[in-house]
Amino acid sequence: MKNKLTKQEISLLLYVETCCVDHDGKLDTTRINDEDRDILSKWNDLGYVYSGRLPIDIVQRDATMWVFMSNEAIGQAATERKARQDRGIVRLFRQLERQECCAVRNNAIGKLQKRVEQIESKED
Question: What is the pTM of this model?
Answer without folding.
Answer: 0.78
